[in-house]
Amino acid sequence: AQSVTQLGSHVSVSEGALVLLRCNYSSSVPPYLFWYVQYPNQGLQLLLKYTSAATLVKGINGFEAEFKKSETSFHLTKPSAHMSDAAEYFCAVRNTGTASKLTFGTGTRLQVTL
Amino acid sequence: KAGVTQTPRYLIKTRGQQVTLSCSPISGHRSVSWYQQTPGQGLQFLFEYFSETQRNKGNFPGRFSGRQFSNSRSEMNVSTLELGDSALYLCASSLDGTGETEAFFGQGTRLTVV
What we know:
Mean pLDDT of chain B: 95
Structural class of chain A: mainly beta
Number of helices of chain B: 0
Oligomer: heterodimer
Strand content of chain B: over 45%
Largest sheet of chain B: 7 strands, mixed
C-alpha cells in the first residue's frame, strides 16, 4: 500500500525565513501527491498537487514543492514565512488508477515566530 | 460556487447512541469521501461513494456506515457510539475522486461522545 512519511511533527521558523516541510512517499510507481493545510477548527485546503506534468509545482500562498523520484520526496517550501502560515500541513498520496482513497501523513505543525 | 457543507458542525452524544452526519458536495461532484481525524490516529479514510455506490472502504467496524443520494449528498451513520469515536469527521467531494482530481474538504463535524 502506498504511504507518505512526514519528518518532523513540529517545525518552528522565524517570520521571513525559509519554510521547508518534508514528505517522503513509498510507491513502486509515481503516485499522485498532494499537500493540504489545516487551520484550527477548519477542514483541509489544497495547497498544491503533483500530477507528473512538471516536477516543480507551484501552489497557493507562495508555496511550492518539488517531486524528486530518486529521493522519493515531495518536500514543501516557501521562501519567506508569514505569521498567517502557522497551521498544520499534511502530505497525502492517492493510488494511481481508479482508487479514490487519499492516504495522509501524520502532519507537521508549523509555528511562525517574530 | 458553494463549497462542501457539513452539518452539524458540533455534536455531543452519549455512549451507545447513534449519530448521522450530513455532507453536501460541490455541485456537479459525484464522489464523496469521509475521513476521521483524531490526535492519536491522524486522518483515516472511512469510505467513498460515487454515484450512490460505495466504491472504497477503509478499515473501520461495521458500526460506521454511509450512503449517497441521487443528488450526491451523503450521510454517514455511526451506531452504538463509543468514547473512541470522538473525532473530527471530514467530508471531501471531488468530480470523480480518482487520480489527480482535487478533493475539496468541508469544515468537518466535531463529534464528542461522553
